[in-house]
Amino acid sequence: MKELVCVTGASGFIASWMVKLLLERGYRVRGVVRSPDNNEKCGHLERLEGAKEGLTLLKGDLLDPDSLSAAIDGCSGVFHMDCPVPSYTSTNPKVEVLSHAIKGTLNVLEACKNSKVKRIVMTSSVAAMAFDLHKPKDAPLDESCWSDEDYLRESNHWYMLGKTMGEKAAWDYSQKNGLDLVVICPSLVLGSLLQASPNTSSLVVLKLLNGSSDSYENSSVGVVDVKDVANAHLLAYETKSASGRYLCRNKTVTRAQMIEIIRRLHPDYTLPTRMIEPQISLSMAK
């Protein structure tokens, strides 16, 4: 088998596909999860082809440096893919998200430095780019764009702020400590689920399917398949010349186009029919 790598947040939507791809390519994988014995959350990983020989699940938390050090020690590479989304029951989403996004990321990088990891590939998000208030209105979104932190804070967009601040902290730490960091910034990630429960991005489609509303806001969004995102991470790891940050997106679609695709594939579903003009539209063109 190939070298040993670590995947944080291994039971997540994108990370699960990352683990699957790494095992298929012959890597030995340490997956960091909160509850490795929880079959509902981690059983799909243990059932992956090659998992018995190549996958080890370890209990870890981004705010527990010792657990991260144990998981990363001896690894050639790290795929840092763990980032919390505010829960509906959270009483303090600001603290819940920002502490993990910033301090958690720095804990991962500290462990990488101590273990002399050769390359870190980190999952950021288009959310760290899309709210760049200094970008000319008609200019396309690209890797030079950074979301405005003050705007996100004032708008209570804690996930987006966490992604922005977490990535900036990662770049600052990596540059000061000589770490080889590559960042992938995917747009809305859709595709088949490996895990039992739907993730946040999948809810964008599920909300169109569940009949909860007869209307939809016809906003546009960049989309990309989860398998392509996992492959982008692997390419970023294996390609020596890879550097910096990469926006990962396939195409831009409107909600109306999403609904039409679903209607064509699944005509029995009751889908929203009344269109509402979007309040905010973001250019995702490249």
**Biggest sheet statistics:** 7 strands, parallel
Mean pLDDT: 92
List the secondary-structure elements in sequence, H or E: EHEHHEHEHEHHEEHEEHEEHE
Compute the number of strand runs: 12
Which range best describes the helical content: under 10%, 10-25%, 25-40%, 40-55%, 55-70% or over 70%?
25-40%
C-alpha end-to-end distance: 38 Å
Low-pLDDT ranges: 281-286
Supply Rg.
19 Å
Please state how the strands of the largest beta sheet are arranged side by side.
Answer: 3-2-1-4-5-6-10
Net shape: globular
InterPro entries: Epimerase_deHydtase, NAD(P)-bd_dom_sf, NAD(P)_dehydrat-like
Organism: Ceratopteris richardii
Keywords: Oxidoreductase
Protein name: NAD-dependent epimerase/dehydratase domain-containing protein
Please give a structural write-up:
By secondary structure, the chain is an alpha/beta fold. Helices cover 39% and strands 19% of the residues. It has ten helices and twelve strands. It has helices at 13-24, 39-46, 51-54, 65-72, 93-115, 149-154, 158-177, 203-209, 226-238, 255-265; strands spanning 4-8, 28-33, 55-59, 77-80, 119-123, 181-186, 188-190, 215-217, 220-225, 244-248, 251-254, 274-276. It has a seven-stranded parallel β-sheet, sandwiched between helices. α5 links the parallel β4 (77-80) and β5 (119-123). Residues 281-286 have low confidence and may be disordered.
